[in-house]
Design goal:
The complex is a heterodimer. Helices cover 21% and strands 41% of the residues of chain A. By secondary structure, chain A is of the alpha+beta class. Chain A folds into 2 domains: 93 residues, 2-Layer Sandwich (PmbA/TldD fold), CATH 3.30.2290; 232 residues, no CATH class. A 6-stranded antiparallel sheet of chain A has the order 3-2-1-4-5-6. In chain A, strands 10-9-8-13-20-19 form a 6-stranded mixed sheet. In chain A, strands 7-14-15-17-21 form a 5-stranded mixed β-barrel. In chain A, helix 4 packs parallel to helix 6. About 3% of the residues of chain A have low confidence. Chain B is α+β, with helices and mostly antiparallel strands. Chain B folds into 2 domains: 212 residues, PmbA/TldD fold; 227 residues, no CATH class. In chain B, helix 3 packs parallel to helix 4. The longest helix of chain B has 17 residues. Chain B is globular and about 70 Å long. The mean pLDDT of chain B is 96. Classes of the chains: A alpha+beta, B alpha+beta. At the A-B interface, strand 2, strand 3, helix 4, strand 6 and strand 7 of A face strand 2, strand 3, helix 2, strand 4 and strand 6 of B.
Chain lengths: 461, 453
């Protein structure tokens, strides 16, 4: 994307003001999407975005400037703007960009093959038909397919030079069903860090039927209970519980500002001994997988909680540097227009030994959550919410009636101690994580598990 | 970059001029500059400065629409973007309603949100402002343990739109904000609060107010316990109401209605709320954060009455959604910048102020007993504008004898949007134009399910 001598000159310019560290992050992203809605192919869209951001760190201050102009002149101008934060002038420095840390681009040729527009539309039509044929009450179907290729290049004044070529493909179906009780919705998505290969593993017909069934089942749903209940989360129902209940609270930026309930608690028991929580950017082709993070560090596996004991936090370059340790491959950004920060990748609970069906059978009364929606957390207090999009009552150890959507609310450190069973089944789901206005793709995973008491916000008294 | 001296509207017209026979082309171009500064611990933690520009092109051929965009105005990308849009159009389903807007003779109201002075403010003054904000928040109350964020931001953006159907519009705006987040503590307990101030430029900003709001919200939550469960009247503060109205607005989109994705579908002329519900989207009101002379298709923005004294009057339309419903565009197209296509949406939705002229204290007094919600979480996952199901996490204070009492946290409040509109029984007159697509004032909604212990 940018020649090495140019990178060296731009890094040199960035440090001219006296900064201690400089970095160039360049990105070239192409994307394509198609939407079939209301029975029509309504929108095919193609996008192209390329540019670079220059970061300069001087003392406690970070300067950042980005530009869509990848010429040497444009990059030098960004370097100058980013360097303006450095307080004292420094000597001219030569910055060799030594490719000693250059992980392989994360793709092979096969993954690079993207779907043709005609093939994409065929998949969308199939999904539409499959959803509509699931039941006569399905009144509306929207199917969408999006694919992107993101080439990134990172060079910094420590001599790091790394590149990655990231492919992502996502297919989703959302349905509306209509009945006496009004409208209900169902949604399902599949997303992986591959190109057209996504459809080797994923049947769009199955995906569409799942979304349709989800909407249909809720037509006869009763209001969710209100108050504290036992909750069984199905394996792969979202995994967002851990993402919200502790993942965000383990991000080092919250830790160093003491804006997390988990600050200063390394080595302490923070969860049930059944909990071993891992964040791993290297897992297969999951949605949060990459070869290098957006600071050029290789993705890695980080164990955060082991048998209930807090073992580590997640680190980006800036916070790791402050603490004198190595980053954990968790420095990510939405695009070249954003500063990197500490982010999760694929966050999951390791499976346990319990039988998933037994967990339900041994629950007298409670709520079974088959699919979770989004969530949100206040890392300082630990209070978090997550929403259900498919849930049922459990009565006398059996899954019975469907429930309308509701949010569950809990406090991270409290909820983590209330996990009393973890199944041996396991599945990951893709999601989008928002933080400080930046969105990045993440994976979440968990086996079937039971929470002994969590507050559910339904409308039933 | 594109030719020096070429104005943005000229660039849009030039690219639209590349349309082939039988083809309609709409070109949307935007260019902006932004500065963001974050302070922490008495120093500048980060300073970001940026310029950005982009183009979004819609092509309509034989009632088929294609779209493409680029995050750059490089000459080389202008042509390839048009080509991509053109190619995308070949694959769309022909639909007689698909068309580009025609000029509709509605005059634009020149609501200028432009601060001429912003461009001449130097970075040092902005740095001083945000450092002062951080220091002020840190010293505002002995219980403030940490200032988790103190930010200043400003930006200017210029947008131009031209099409082969004779649309030609351009407008520009500046904006500025400060925001601050604090952590207050007492013993083992910590609580957070945030405050902000927005305006057209630096001169409009009120850091004192942002700080006071953040500190009050954090400090009054200290000692909060999980609240009780039961049916209660819930008072939502102004910021929460902005969020609620934005959720309701999704169901007022003419596109959602025609596609059967709104609980309001088929209900025009019916009562959908209490007589206190009058909802108007008026981007021509210069006080609104989302005020704009033109919509995202280059038509004049206008005042649209959506609900009047509880009765549903109409929906918001862009050109295509309007055609599908057999009506003209209501000048309500919005889009998420150059990378998005237009769709109908609110810019400045406001609930008419209540007749008694009540402020927050007045609403609390009128309610007597209930729960005051100062902030909500999980709105994205918990509010469904299609089914109307509503269930969100909340924190706030109990209302006893008409005033705020002890703080409660880790509760949910639930109902349906349909029932909430009917159960709206007190509306304050303390309307504030907050950032976003809706204004907010204090309101009370009866018979909500509150879940705690």
């Amino acid at each position: 994307m940018i020649d090495t001598p140019v990178l060296e000159r731009v890094l040199g310019q960035a440090l001219r003001g006296g900064g201690e560290f400089a970095e160039i992050f360049a990105e070239d992203r192409t994307s394509a999407s198609a939407v079939l809605d209301d029975g029509r192919v309504e929108e095919l869209s193609s996008g192209r975005e390329r540019g670079a951001g220059v970061r300069v760190i001087s003392g406690e201050t970070t300067g950042y400037a980005h530009t869509a102009d990848l010429s040497e002149v444009g990059l030098l101008r960004a370097a100058e703007a980013a360097a303006a934060v450095a307080r004292s002038g420094g000597d001219e420095r030569t910055v060799p960009a030594d490719p000693r840390l250059s992980p392989r681009g994360g793709t092979d040729d096969r993954m690079a093959v993207s779907l043709s527009k005609a093939d994409t539309l065929e998949l969308l039509r199939r999904a539409d038909e499959a959803a509509r044929s699931t039941g006569g009450a399905v009144s509306q179907v929207q199917a969408g397919c999006g694919a992107s290729r993101r080439q990134v290049l990172v060079a910094n004044s420590d001599g790091l030079l790394a590149a990655d070529d990231q492919y992502r493909t996502r297919f989703s179906v959302s349905c509306v069903a209509v009945g006496d009780s009004g409208l209900q919705t169902g949604f399902e998505t599949a997303a992986r860090t591959v190109g057209a290969d996504l459809f080797d593993d994923v049947s769009v017909d199955d995906l569409a039927r799942t979304a349709a069934e989800r909407a249909l089942s809720k037509l006869s749903a009763r209001p969710a209970p209100s108050g504290e209940v036992a909750v069984v989360l199905a394996g792969g129902s979202g995994g967002i519980l851990f993402h919200e209940a502790c993942g965000h609270g383990l991000e080092a930026d919250h830790i160093v500002k003491e804006a997390s309930v988990y600050a200063g608690r390394i080595g302490e028991l923070v969860a049930s001994p059944l909990v071993t929580l891992v964040d791993d950017g290297t897992v297969g082709a999951e949605w949060g997988t990459f070869a290098i993070d957006d600071e050029g560090r290789p993705a890695q596996r980080n164990v955060l909680i082991e048998d209930g004991i807090l073992t580590d936090y997640l680190w980006d370059y800036l916070r790791a540097r402050k603490e004198g340790r190595t980053p954990s491959g968790n420095g990510r950004r939405q695009s070249y227009q954003h500063l990197p920060m500490v982010r999760m990748t694929n966050t999951f609970l390791l499976p346990g030994n319990d039988d998933a069906d037994e967990i339900v059978a041994q629950t007298q009364h409670g709520v079974y959550v088959a699919k979770l929606g989004g969530g949100q957390v206040n890392t300082t207090t630990g209070d978090f919410v997550f929403g259900t999009t498919e849930a049922y009552l459990i009565e006398n150890g059996r899954i019975t009636e469907p429930l309308r959507d509701a949010n569950l609310i809990g406090n991270g450190p409290e909820i983590l101690t209330r996990i009393d069973a973890v199944g041996a089944d396991f599945a990951m789901t893709p999601g989008t994580c928002g933080k400080d206005g930046q969105s990045v793709p993440v994976g979440c995973g968990q086996a079937t598990l039971r929470l002994t008491g969590v507050t559910i916000g339904g409308t039933a008294e | 970059m594109h030719g020096a001296g070429e104005r943005l509207i000229e660039l849009a017209e030039r690219v639209a001029g590349w349309a082939k026979a039988g083809e309609d082309v709409e070109v949307y171009v935007a260019r902006g500059e932004d500065t963001e500064i974050r302070a922490y611990g008495g120093e500048v933690e980060s300073l970001t400065s940026a310029t950005s520009a982009g183009i979004g092109i819609r092509v309509v051929v034989d009632h088929r629409l294609g779209f493409a965009w680029a995050g750059s105005l490089d000459e080389e990308l202008l042509g390839t973007t048009l080509e991509a849009a053109r190619d995308n159009a070949r694959f769309a389903t022909p639909d007689e309603h698909v068309r580009l807007p025609e000029p509709d003779q509605v005059p634009a109201v020149p609501v200028g949100r432009w601060d001429e002075g912003l461009a001449s403010v130097d970075t040092a003054s902005k740095v001083d402002l945000v450092l002062a904000l951080e220091a002020q928040a840190r010293g505002a109350d002995p219980r403030v343990r940490q200032v988790s964020s103190a930010d200043y931001g400003d930006g200017s953006v210029e947008v131009a739109l031209a099409s082969t159907r004779g649309i030609r519009s351009s407008h520009r705006r500046t904006s500025g904000f400060v925001s601050v987040g604090v952590i207050a503590g007492e013993g083992d307990a910590s609580q957070t609060g945030s405050g902000f101030s927005v305006g057209q430029g630096m001169g409009d900003l009120d850091p004192d107010r942002a700080t006071a709001d953040a500190v009050q919200r954090a400090v009054r939550m200290l000692g909060a316990v999980k609240g009780p469960s039961g049916r209660a009247t819930v008072v939502f503060d102004r910021r929460a109401v902005t969020t609620l109205l934005a959720a309701v607005s999704a169901a007022l989109s003419g596109e959602a209605v025609s596609k059967g994705r709104s609980f309001f579908a088929g209900r025009i002329g019916e009562d959908v709320g209490s007589p206190l519900v009058t909802l108007i989207d008026d981007p021509t009101d210069a006080r609104a954060y989302g005020a704009s002379a033109y919509d995202a298709e280059g038509l004049a923005c206008r005042r649209n009455v959506l609900v009047q004294r509880g009765m549903l009057q109409g929906f918001l339309y862009d050109t295509i959604a309007g055609a599908r419903a057999g009506v003209a565009s209501s000048g309500a197209a919005v889009r998420g910048g150059y990378a998005g296509t237009p769709s109908p949406g609110c810019r400045a939705l406001v609930l008419a102020p209540g007749p008694e002229g009540l402020d927050e204290a007045g609403v609390l007094a009128a309610v007597g007993d209930g729960v005051f919600v100062q902030s909500m979480t999980g709105v994205h996952s918990g509010v469904n504008p299609i089914s109307g199901d509503f269930s969100v996490g909340a924190e706030g204070l109990m209302i006893r004898d008409g005033t705020l009492a002890e703080p409660v946290r880790e509760i949910t409040v639930a109902s349906t949007l349909q029932r909430m509109l009917r159960a709206l029984h007190v509306v304050g007159a303390d309307v504030e134009w907050l950032p976003g697509i809706a204004a907010g004032q204090t309101i009370a909604i009866g018979d909500m399910q509150v879940s705690g212990v």
